[in-house]
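I keep forgetting this: the sequence line spells out the residues, with the fold written below as integer tokens. I include a record here:
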Amino acid sequence: MIALVMILPLVLGLASLITRSRFVNRVSLVGTAAVLLAAGVAEWLGIDWALLPGWLGLYFHFDGIGLYFFIIMALVFAGVAVYSLSYFREHRLTAGQESVYVVQILFFVEAMSGVILATHLALMWVFVEATTLSSALLIYFEKRKASLEATWKYVYICSIGIALAFVGIILLSIGSEKIGSLFFSDLYQHAAEINPFWLRVSFAFLFVGLGTKIGIAPIHAWLPDAHSEAPSPVSALLSGTLLNSAFLGLLRVQEILVRADQETFSNFILILTGFLSLLISSVFILRVRNYKRMLAYSSIENMGIMFIGVGLGPIGIFAAMLHALAHSLSKTSLFLTSGNILHHYKTKKIDEVRGMLEKDPVTGWIWIVSALSIFGIPPFPIFISKFFIVKAFWMNGEPWLALLFFLFIVIVTFGMGRAVFNMTFGDASSSNEGSAHLSLSAYLPQVAFLLVLLLVGIGMPHQVFDMINNAAGFFSSGSVHNVISMVR
């Protein structure tokens, strides 16, 4: 299974680049997405395809939390692959341009798969760096001056972050000299033998390094520019999968501190930066004039919510895992729909988009419902995750933090909701004219994601509940299964 996941994107990406055929491009893109999703579901169901060489299994592995984030990535990538067919058509890309797009996006997905499945800390670092190099080319794909500036800012800031993460790995190696291994299983098993001083210092460096990729405040400066200037399908991948991949890497490091009884230190940092991210996003989202930048600041907010959840213990951890799924699908739907809006209005300025329901009713309603989903309006699952984070504040004896949490959430919802509804309603006659004709692939992924979110929010299937519970059970900081049984 893992051999297929790790090799197929490389093979089909190179095939697309060599042949430069529209047919091969589409088969490579959609086919890879289908196979990765099928592989994740098969692993979830316990189906073994017996394609795993022994040496590959040593360095890549599906554990509970890795499988969960891999399935999220595969779902988002499948939607992006289908939407990309519309992107090819509306932007009139040549076969050669399509080939470049496909090989870059497949290499990007390959790198994220490596981050998610890596069993070795240094190997995970290599793939995190690979995500920077491969995604930078995608951000610059449309070759505009603004996208070039965003790409350089992204590469510069993330490269510094990754360098700091490498320093963190070196410091952890010093502290775990007696263990003599950087495999996560060895670090977890012998976490108590790691020197606490070096462990804390190494976590600080790894936190800054991986936090830069996650886009958490105050090391988030690249994110609004990159997300707003990248093609809409790429923005969806960046927000829906890249942030999750780096977040998972940080969670694996966090578990080392949990097993070494140092989680008080790391939990404080997680909660502090989580609230700082809520503060930054709430301030900027009230002033932003670009709807793709608005979505980028919303990503910063939601990653902050996930940080807070992880720092609050068992209930918060479950909430963070559920929030990861809900945010990825909701935000992917919003970013893909922003591509439709850009096609119709030829602008990213919020004030120049009016009457979306009149110009393209399907896009208008998807935009509204996707926004309601990211706000956490019942019955969407973000309501559940936020509810349990608030409950975790009360159980931890910190109700005043719940009030602060509510305040930031209300500000973000007001700022984003005002923009969404102003764009959707009104008279479209004064807006820029654009073709109202879009293919089915420009709507289908968003509708599918919203239906999945409604299914999870209204009546969470026990298989989905068990998968989220298994992901949350990755942490040894308490009995997640007992505490979260009330979700059912």
